[in-house]
Amino acid sequence: MISTLAIPRVSVTPARRDSSRAGRPYHRKRLEVLQNEEPSSQNDKQPDWSAVLCAVAEQDRAAFSALFAHFAPRVKSYMLRLGSDNTHAEELAQEALATVWRKADRYDPSRAAASTWIFTIARNLRIDAFRRRNHPELDPNDPALVPDQPVSADTVVEQKQDAVRIREALAELPEEQREVLKLSFFDDQTHTEISETLGIPLGTVKSRIRLGFGRIRTTLEDEE
Amino acid sequence: MSIQHHPDDELLVSYASGELPEAWSVLVATHTALCTDCRGKVRAAEAVGGALVSDAAPVEMDAGAFEATMARVAAQPDEPAVTPVTTVGVAKPVLPQPLRDYAGGDLNSLKWRRLGHGAYHVPLVTGRGAPTARLIRIPAGRPVPEHGHNGLELTMVLQGSFVDGGTRFGAGDVEIADSDLEHQPMAEPGQDCICLAVTDAPLRFRGAFARMVQPFIGI
Lengths: 224, 219
Ligand SMILES: [Zn+2]
Prior knowledge:
The complex is a heterodimer of chains A (224) and B (219).
Chain A: H1 6-10, H2 14-17, H3 25-36, H4 41-45, H5 49-57, H6 61-79, H7 86-103, H8 114-131, H9 154-172, H10 175-186, H11 191-198, H12 202-222
Chain B: H1 9-17, H2 22-34, H3 36-54, H4 65-75, H5 99-103, E1 113-116, E2 119-124, E3 132-138, E4 147-149, E5 153-159, E6 162-164, E7 167-169, E8 174-177, E9 186-187, E10 193-199, E11 203-205, H6 208-217
Antiparallel strand pairs in B: 1-2, 2-3, 3-10, 4-11, 5-8, 5-10, 6-7, 6-9
Helix pairs in contact in B: 1-3, 2-3
């Protein structure tokens, strides 16, 4: 078990203040937000993984060690699936966390919670390892991209709160809706495969995914 | 730009979960480059993935896994630095990323192949087997050769516009056509219409000419 006391302190290490690297405006904003933030009951339960990940971006090995202890066994769980034995899952989990360390300076806490960002890294590795193909993605630096709304100082806090709300919303979903989402994300089954696994029509799989996802999005919009 | 027609939520969730085949994913990714609404939905769906990973039952890592991971970091090449793109004085590309990578460049550098009736296409390489993705160019004011589908077809407009069954599709819009639909999109006058089209089954062209050339052009 990780000490929940040690980790939040990581987020205000002096090293992060020295950051003068270009292209990372959000990290500095993050600090101000942290200092003004009242600790909530949610933050008592879980360390602030966004802040930990920002510290990892500053090559903070202690922060990375804490992040590793929490996420590596969960990413391994994600990688352990049909056709993936313990050795392969272990390798992929190590590779995913190595990528987290190397790409941490690209993490933007105003766009995603830490768990979301780590999920996308694990997902792309898994697609590459099991399907030998790419996961095409937009390029945030593409001049043809229609830009996002400007980021406000609140956005980082919102991302963290969203991550908590999504977990709560998932837990409150009807079992049949949670089940199809889990099969889709975690067992990497296509919607056709899910319909075969569960012995239900494809249309039912699709409507459960739509309903479950719709409910989660409603939760986020209601509380904004 | 005002986008009216979007991919459905189920497709966005499939994309975020990683199980959507590559050809469809190219279309979804290209749409999210132009549509901030769908980009937000994909982020929400990825956050669902993050929540599921957070809630996953942890599986113990091997002894020495942390050191092994740090050794992997040392063995991997450094990430290339992200260089900010200078946009001042540079013409904005028509095709957003990741489409330019798949097409082999922006519109002005594509190698168009004749499709008949004045239409041209550029097949995109997206891994093995179906579904298939291609860019299609329809002359202004002309119809796409009439066709039906064995499966699903998604068409996203990149330039110009077309009308199909009384509905207009402009830049960024996505038309979803299933196997029941026998449709004939018509490019609007003024500008050639360029679309990204993805199908999971070969198209069935109706016209005598199209039927004749279909076996040879491999569509
Ligand atoms: Zn959209």
